Amino acid sequence: MLIAILLVLAYLIGSIPSAVWVSKWAYGLDIREHGSGNAGATNTFRTLGSKAGCGVMLMDMFKGFLAVKLALFSHLNPSLEPFVNLQVFLGLASVLGHIFPIWAEFRGGKGIATLFGMILSISPLVALSLVAVFVCMLYLTRYVSLSSITASIAFPVLIVFIFNAQELSYRLFAIATAFLVVLTHYKNISRLINGNESKVPFFKKRRTRD
Q: Is pLDDT of 196 > 80?
């Protein structure tokens, strides 16, 4: 019963629509009606600029981080595999909440920032390594989508071959994550191939459109 309650709480935390609330309260618009239509950090960056985008990204990351920490309220031993399994499921519940938020008509984002917050909570060193991959690719290309895809593919490589995580559930989760991120970014991949993907002008003032 306790585990079920924790999973529901994790989903509700993930459902907090950061991008929607920031766009409505601070800018008077619904981010889902602009740009790509996704209620996530990437679309916020493109539509509202780096200040709003960074704020939304941090909030979305914190959702995944906090959801995983709910495992501490269980009676499981943190040093054993069942505890890691619970962390993975709590994190997934928060990502599911971000993608299908109950607080925002089930219209959310792609869950990349929330997913990262989840990984940061479970394996900080792995998360920092993924940040390095993401930032390097972003610096070279200015494509958030390509950076996210590259980092997601690096995730199982790091888990299996570099950090050699022993938990089967964590390994399977890492592999599944890479496939799912690539799958959910199929439109971005198409735009990248056709040269139509938007670049993000970090730390530059957003140009106002006529």
A: yes
Distance CA 64, CA 92 (A): 8
Query: What gap in Å lies between CA 95 and CA 115, rounded to an integer?
Result: 6
Query: pLDDT tens across 136-187, in order?
Result: 999 999 888 899 899 999 999 999 999 998 888 899 999 998 998 898 888 8
Q: Where are the domains of the chain?
A: 2-194
**Distance in angstroms (rounded) separating the CA atoms of residues 66 and 47:** 27
CA 140/CA 119 separation, integer angstroms: 24
Establish how many alpha carbons lie within 13 A of residue 160's alpha carbon, considering only the half-sphere containing its beta carbon: 14
Q: How far apart are CA 110 and CA 79, in angstroms?
A: 31
Q: Which residue has the tokens 């209620």?
A: 39
Q: Give the span between the Cα atoms of 77 and 8, in whole angstroms.
A: 21
DSSP label at 70? G
Q: Residue 42 is encoded by which pair of tokens?
A: 């990437």
